[in-house]
Amino acid sequence: MGLWAVIFAWATGAWAADTPAISRVEARSNDLLAVGVVRDDKMSIHISRLADNAPVRDAVVTVVLRGMVHPTTAEADGSYSLQTKDLALPGAAAVDFQVGQGAARESLKGTLDIASVPGQLDDKNSSRQLWWWVLNFAVCGAALWLFSRRRNAAKD
Q: What letter does residue 121 receive in the DSSP assignment?
């Protein structure tokens, strides 16, 4: 019985976490590396120097996403954050991190591929659906087998 419960839970996604999809963008210039991690409508951005991997602090960072310029907020840990509804839109988007420190300005470009809504299957013929059908047929087959055994036992 325990094995069937595990198979059923796996096939139906009963223990699948309802965590938001996490998307990631990486952009480089000659001197800097920017990594952005998106959760829902918020992006956490870490910018570091390629030479020594030191975080870039006290910079003015703006993000161009889907043609709109978005200012970022500096965080205490040296990262930057951005919150916009544009991050919740599924699909690929060009991202341009514009980093300014004093007179120095750099542009780091990358592509962000935002996953679709969590829990929504992109492919209707996914392996999860296949296993659901296998489980359905197995349960129906087992029920018919038990029914026929009882029927044969009642005849004897």
A: -
